[in-house]
Write a structure and sequence with these properties.
This protein has 159 residues and is mainly alpha-helical. It is 72% helix and 0% strand. It has one domain. The chain starts with a helix and ends with a helix.
Length: 159
């Protein structure tokens, strides 16, 4: 398997691990939405906010739920593929993966997400949300590194 494909596959699996962590993290680190509403899974909130801005109307909740899950997996696959480009055929390294996860957090939550006005920048966001997001991205990076295996053979892939 090529490093890019291994990274993309690892990114999808790592996104699933991250989502499971966030589900528990919402109970441990609850945080209201920026408008003061009830806590939401952050990819759901981002998708809903983007659709509201684009459609100029309240989007269908079922559509938002499906699209937010798909977009989260796609975003994870994209970053996983970049991880594959960066890592090449290097051995698994959980610390490198966790550093990469923090980079993904910084580009998203300290970069394009506040730039588009979807969430506040980290220093102005609810502390619990930032703790949860930082920890979730560490989980993403660790899981990505654990699942990353560009040197696997097709026989190993079918097991």
């Amino acid at each position: 398997m090529t490093p890019i494909l291994s990274g993309a596959r690892g990114g999808i699996l790592a996104s699933l691990a991250m989502s499971l962590f966030q589900a528990g993290g919402m109970k441990l680190f609850p945080a209201p939405t920026p408008e003061g509403g009830p806590d939401e899974w952050t990819p759901h909130y981002i998708t809903k906010s983007a659709l509201k801005a684009f459609l100029k109307d309240e989007p269908d909740p079922d559509w938002v739920k499906s699209l937010s899950a798909l977009s989260h997996l796609g975003y994870g696959a994209f970053w996983g593929a970049l991880y594959g480009l960066w890592s090449g055929n290097k051995n698994k390294n959980i610390a490198r993966g966790m550093a990469f996860g923090l980079g993904v957090w910084a580009i998203g939550y300290a970069g394009w997400v506040p730039a588009l006005g979807i969430l506040n920048p980290p220093h102005r966001e609810h502390r619990n949300r930032e703790v949860r997001l930082l920890l979730a991205h560490l989980v993403y990076g660790a899981a990505l590194a654990a699942f990353y295996n560009p040197n696997s053979s097709p026989e190993e892939e079918s097991l």
